[in-house]
Design goal:
- This protein is mostly helical.
- About 95% of the residues lie in helices and about 0% in strands.
- It has 1 helix and no strands.
- The longest helix is centred in the middle third of the chain and has 50 residues.
- The protein is rod-shaped and about 75 Å long.
- The relative contact order is 0.07.
- The mean pLDDT is about 85.
């Protein structure tokens, strides 16, 4: 019984860890989507300055 309880506890903790990883990953994707246009604009401006 104690083994079963510890196994359930381990499953819950690993599940919450997985949820944290997934939420961090999704937040990272959203941040990347926001930053990508800015980075592309900076590259465009930098390339334009180099050409001039």
């Amino acid at each position: 019984m104690a083994f079963l309880f510890s196994f359930i506890e381990f499953s819950i903790s690993s599940l919450s860890f997985s949820i944290k990883i997934v939420s961090l990953w999704l937040a990272g994707i959203q941040t990347w989507e926001r930053l990508t246009p800015m980075v592309l604009n900076l590259n465009w401006v930098f390339g334009f300055l180099c050409c001039v």
